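User: I'm new to structure prediction. If I give you an amino acid sequence, what do you actually give back? Let's try with this one:
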Amino acid sequence: MAVRAPDFRPELEWINTGGRKLTLADFRGRLLVLDFWTYGCINCIHMIPELAELERRFPDEVGVVGVHSGKFVNEREDANIARACERLGVHHPVLNDRQFRTWREYAIRAWPSLVLVSPDGYVLGAQAGEVTAEQLTPVVARFVEALRAGGKVGGAGPVPYEAQTQPPEPGVLRFPAKVLALSETRLVVSDTGHHRLLEIEVDAEGATGRVVRAIGSGRAGWMDGEAGAAAFRAPHGTAFDGAFLYVADTENHLIRVVDLETGRVATLAGVGDQARARYPGGPARETPLNSPWDVLWLDGALYVAMAGPHQLWRMRTDPPSDALEVFAGSGAEEVHDAELAMAALAQPSALATDGRAVYFADAESSAVRVAVPDGEVRTIVGTGLFD
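Assistant: Good question. You get back a string of structure tokens that encode the predicted 3D arrangement of the chain. For your 387 residues, that looks like this:
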């Protein structure tokens, strides 16, 4: 039996529509894809470029609406959602489903979830979890073909989208993700929104600073080479061993290395595409990575906060090795303390050390945890995925 899709509630607020409140009727003539997400969820973040690619493939037949059902209280504020949309590159209308009303009406149970709605307002199907544009394309193509044969697709106006930029306007920095001190007077800032790193010299009091070198052209991409020509895509965490700067090139799913003397950039690990399966490790330049968010140098090894598979990885460089290995985390998403291989993590996103152990922010569970080499994972702060 066909199920009528619940319309958008008029009391809810919208982002990326110029203040306009939308209804299903605004998407007549299009197959509508509802993306239920929350901006702190790595799996939801992975869906953003996939949906953009789907819209590119079906520009006149498909429309996307993000239904933002915020997991935590701060993720339910209009301004915070708008800022996240700008930072993450969300280029479609987004409904702030702050009280999970739309979520419940569509019987959603997990982030992310997709629901397909016909141009005449009926639910055609739903899918929970990450899915790629390649996987979605044949399904969408079949629906579009059937709907076109029935005269339901076609003649649609443009999707009602208007970019919503939140103050302050970007200046020298845009969404900087990390500051790393190379010395008492030299910093490296991950200028994430501008897809580059900035080397900054500060005075002895730390009161003023000036940019002395940009590493990266500022154009999103993947290119090794000299500092001014190299390209990153949303670099986040950095670490250094005195001679080399290591970079978590997050949206390229790569680890990059910068020679601090020459500024030359090379690729250390990854293949440039997101890992779609869980890997135990392998040769660094042959093993796909999944949203590396931070890196840490400790005792001749490079540790990686691998947010996508909910694990910490490690690359030993003393003795030299070109292999990556899982350091901690079974791959399950949870707060579960145990020996390194059996512990469950929840989107590790930042690393620190006291010279012995690896401390990490487990973002999806609002936790701070510690992994002791040859030991176990323990939770310092945090109790669960929804706390």
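You can read the tokens as a compact description of the fold. Here is one thing that stands out. The radius of gyration is 22 Å.
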